[in-house]
Amino acid sequence: MMRRKHFSVAMLAAVIGCGFAHASSYYPIKPMDDSLVALTKEAYPALHADGLGDDSDVLQAAINAASAKGSVLLVPEGRYLLSKTVGVPPSTRLLGFGKNRPVFVLPANTVGFDDPEKPKYMIWFSGGGGGGRRRGQPAATAPTTAPATRPNTFSDASPGTFYSGLSNIDFEIGDGNKGAVAIRGHYAQHGIVSHVDFQIGSGFAGINGVGNEAEDLHFHGGTYGIVSTGTSPSWQYTLVDSSFDGQRVAAVRTRNTGLTLIGDDIRNVPTAIAIEEERDERLWMSDCKFENISEAAIVVGNEGNVRTQINVEEIACNNVPIVAAYAQSKTHLASGKEGRYVIGRFGYGLEVADLGERPVIQQTYETRDAASADADKAKVILPLPPMETWVSVAKYGAKGDSLTDDTAAIRTAVKKERVLFFPRGHYRVTDSITLKPDTVIIGLNPITTQIGVDDNEKNFMGEGEWKGVIESAKGGTNIIQGVSLDSGAMNNRAVGLKWTAGEKSMVNDVKFLGGHGTSYPDGRRDPVYNADHTGDSNPDRKWSSEPPSLWITDGGGGIFADIWTASTFSAAGMQVDNTQTPGKIYELSSEHHQHNEIIFRHVSNWRIFAEQTEEEWGEGPVCLPLTVDDCSNLVFANTILFRVFAMNAPYPTGIQVSNSKDITFRGIRTYGQSPFNFDNSILDSTLGMTIPSREISSVYISGNPTAEKKDAAPSPVVADGAAPQKVGEGYTSADHAVTDSAGNVYFVDMLANKIFRCSAETFEVNLLRDDVTQPFALAVDKADDLLIMSRAGKVFSLSLKEPKGALTELQGVPAVPRPAMAAVIPTDRWWDGGMFLETCARREPLQFISPDQTLFIPVPADYATGRQHNWTSQPIDLYRKNQLAIAEPGKPFYVADENEHKTWAFTASDDGTLSAGKMFAQHGEAGVTTDSAGNVYVAEGEVYVYDAAGKQIDSIHVPERPLSIVFCGNDRSTIFITGRRAAYLLKMKVKGS
């Protein structure tokens, strides 16, 4: 029996009789599932649940027991005192129940929770390494400190931490705990926190580290309500139907989170949203309230950079005199209003007024008067029916054992009841389950409550229309929440969910099984790939053998929140077609399909918030993430299009629009960890127009042809009347251009294993070498030896005096300063973890010396392994770059930070390192070069030109995305630009340096 700890009067006051008014319990009755672990005194005799005895260890033991089932821990009404951090392993959810919500309490002056510089958590959602801990493995040791100081036995939640959650449990933090945080929730898809009141008091924050989606959270007091530095998988974070009140510094402190706030109230704080200085954020807010904001409502941390995307719409304000403050320029945007008013729109970032218009970074601000800012808002998430109306499908004989055919039992339950509760299990069906107009389906964890069909199920095969495992009623008010749907594989007519319900319907917290993220209630997890990633691990299960997983059609609409659709066996993750019924999507992840992720076809009146796609290199090299065809009146907010690090082929566009009008995008991020990203963010195939910018705050597509506007003023660098002229084409990925002493250009088509030459005299392009050396980067020394870097981890040299001669393999030597030589280093780097400056300053341990002893190439110790495809290892700097250049010691050298879209000026050293870094320009992605006047040319969708002081003086449009840039020709007065599939020449007024 655990002994009770003794507490002082002050400590008792922190846990009883504190007077906090908690919200009503969302789950007043214990769910009808005896397979779940419950935190009761019968099961755990040492439990106190009275706020006096320490329940930390008992709670951890119960969580571990629930985690062994990969399931849900039921926490009854009570007050649970915690004196240390309690960890929640992956796939495990905590759900409070009872007439009153259970409360987790941190007593006043608890040891270890007093340092705001080292936040410490009451509840920590943990990772399990890579894809998360498999069910049945022992739980990790409970965490004790924040990530910077956590013990090695415990890992923070990873991008593969799925399904974790906490609902209907409140938190109270007592006085004297300045470093206390209620929750760290840095998980990925289907992690969720909902129905929680945070009484933070003197504590640091309610949540530190966020992920996925959250509902009905209310933050009272604290230094902050939420602190976020980006989600674990770098997707968006969506918070709905929530509030912040009385934080001492800001309601939210954030950077790079993809913060999406809808239907939230923020009041009685100095600042609502504080974006950290010199850091970016993709912020969307709509249908929110600001009240009594004493300083700036929004602090913009990174001015002039395309990664800053601020979009705020329909915000009811009361006593908010300053809308925005800009941290770097120390300027601000005053509201111009007193008392009550509405922000119709506040925007800041790269905006495209309409396709064909030039993108411009600008501020947009629109307001209107409002008689009242206190009108009640409609909730984003529909409430579930009262628990007393829930009926377990077990009552009608449904087994959920994955073997029994539960079709008849579930159909009977649908016929006789309105609200169906599905206990933990895999419910096998052999035909469609069609809902009545008001049927509601409820589960508690989508990975442990599953409804699905087997492969090759005859009722879902053959000729005929698509049919759903579950089918809603046309125009109905159906709700499906907390379950996963499995259409199997090789069922050529099967969709997971066919949805024709109306505007007042909802699909929430639903996973579509198949491939990534799939496991089963018995702990089984099928491998996703075969050995070479060309198919499923089971050769009988074929990719793209079925229609879309989620099919919304025939007038379907409603609310779709927290959806993860990643079945490689489906043709798309979601298809919406033939409907004008309003629909709203909140936090949808569609991933890992072969050809399409999301399709909108013949659709109007939809709003899509925080939509994310991901393409893997095995199945997704030719996948189009988002198709918008014959649509109107659609708004996409905070969209992310992502390609993984091992992707080995580019793709033309992330979004394809055709025959559509009145399409608005508010915030787009198009990125990837490999060199082979999407070449354009948007292609309108009807208008024949593209947007190459990868980070865009606002785009409007009217559907009307708009001639591209050209600058009236003559270019200070481009020759009068000159335009890029194509001189070579048909490449798969042309980059790494360099020149020799005569002005000839050499460049690589890496995927084709070829090296090409462009003549300085005739400007004709011809094949130079077609060896099996796997070339990926080039340099030229003063004696005109071509240095060829190989993906096999080697470096070769070739005398350009005998270009058809033999290659000489160079040997790496230990690194030393070489004052008589110059280093050859990348002009562009990619680091997603904030390591750009450290990487540029890093001294590599090996060097390859050019034959004439004038140049050396620094490389990492593991360069010889040839593992440049692995973004987690050092050679990523060499593999990802688009251009090498010579860094003369003591002279300026410019490097583009691709991930942050900035270019930095450094001073080169004789050991190949760069120092004295200074941010030079708010653009940067691929190749960088300079001219004789000191101007700097930066490739990022087009070529931006800056003078030596860093002032932009021009931009040069190129027919396709530029990757590397060099001055060439006999007199160096021509720029040679490699695009993805072609090469271009442009006559200049100036010469190369």
Structure description:
This protein is mainly β. Among the domains are: 9-369, Pectate Lyase C-like; 725-802 and 809-987, Neuraminidase (6 Propeller). The chain has five helices and 78 strands. The strands form eight sheets. The chain has a ten-stranded mixed sheet with strand order 5-8-11-13-15-18-21-23-25-26. A six-stranded parallel beta barrel has the order 14-16-19-22-20-17. It has a five-stranded mixed sheet with strand order 63-66-67-64-68, with no helix packed on it. The protein is globular, with a radius of gyration of 29 Å. The model is unreliable at 1-19, 129-153 and 869-875 (pLDDT under 50).
Structural class: mainly beta
Which strand order does the major sheet show?
5-8-11-13-15-18-21-23-25-26
Overall number of strands: 78
CATH level-4 homologous superfamily of the domain at 9-369: Single-stranded right-handed beta-helix, Pectin lyase-like
The appropriate CATH architecture of the domain at 9-369 is 3 Solenoid
**Helix share of residues?**
under 10%
Question: Whole-number radius of gyration?
Answer: 29 Å
Overall, the morphology is: globular
Secondary-structure blueprint:
Blueprint: H1 9-15, E1 37-38, E2 50-54, H2 56-68, E3 72-76, E4 79-81, E5 86-88, E6 93-97, E7 103-106, E8 120-125, E9 165-167, E10 170-173, E11 180-184, E12 192-201, E13 205-208, E14 213-221, E15 224-228, E16 237-240, E17 243-245, E18 250-254, E19 259-262, E20 265-269, E21 271-275, E22 282-293, E23 296-300, E24 309-318, E25 322-326, E26 331-334, E27 340-352, E28 360-369, E29 390-392, E30 401-405, H3 407-416, E31 419-421, E32 425-428, E33 433-434, E34 440-442, E35 449-452, E36 467-471, E37 479-481, E38 484-486, E39 494-499, E40 506-512, E41 550-552, E42 558-565, E43 574-579, E44 583-591, E45 596-615, E46 624-629, E47 632-643, E48 651-658, E49 661-672, E50 678-684, E51 689-691, E52 695-696, E53 698-701, E54 725-729, E55 734-739, E56 745-749, E57 754-758, E58 765-769, E59 775-780, E60 785-790, E61 795-799, E62 808-810, E63 813-814, E64 822-826, E65 828-829, H4 836-841, E66 846-849, E67 855-859, H5 876-880, E68 884-887, E69 892-897, E70 902-908, E71 914-921, E72 928-930, E73 936-940, E74 942-946, E75 952-956, ...
